[in-house]
Amino acid sequence: MSSGIETHRVVPQVTRAGELYGDTGQSGGAVRLSGVSPQHTPATKIWFGRVSNEPGYRSLPHHHGEAETGGYVLTGHGRIYFGENYAEWVDMTAGDFVFVPPYMPHVEVNMSVTEELVWLTCRTPDNIVVNLPDVDDSILEGYRRA
Q1: Which residues contact 76 (CB under 8 A, 6 or more apart)?
Q2: ∠ Cα 24 30 36 (to 5°)
Q3: Which residues contact 57 (CB under 8 A, 6 or more apart)?
Q4: Judging by DSSP bridges, how do beta strands 106-110 and 77-82 pair with one another?
Q5: Which residues are 100's β-sheet partners?
Q6: CATH number of 32-133: 2.30.110.10, 2.60.120.10, 2.60.40.10, 2.30.22.10?
Q7: Are 15 and 50 in contact (CB under 8 A)?
Q8: pLDDT profile of the chain (146 residues), mean per 10
Q9: pTM: predicted TM-score of the whole model, two decimal places
Q10: What's the rounded Cα separation, in Å, for the pair 10 and 129?
């Protein structure tokens, strides 16, 4: 007996290398591509993707709204500036995980002027990116462009 209600079967979905979704929130020199997100998979409560910064590049100041963010550095040397005037920071290298709380203004930078920074980022419920007014590179202690 049919109830007349159509149901959709949800199965594992693979996003192949080279097919990552790029029409997602961006912030300057941090390029975000998703492998799992509500925009192109059945996911409803997670955004999971690859973020890269070319040598010497950085993001604009931004925060991720209500989203909790976890990151894992695949290659390179990253730094996240935060706090008043972005005067505090944490450094990360390959194999490090990082958690960024909701609504925390920050700047993500590649500290190398020769090597790319690549990390995986997971965010709930989605890739919320709220860009803030830019700051001069000179206030980011230790940062320099390529």
Answers
A1: 53, 93, 94, 110, 111, 112, 115, 116, 117, 118, 119
A2: 40
A3: 28, 29, 30, 109, 110, 145, 146
A4: antiparallel
A5: 69
A6: 2.60.120.10
A7: no
A8: 65 84 77 87 91 92 95 97 98 97 97 96 90 96 92
A9: 0.84
A10: 28
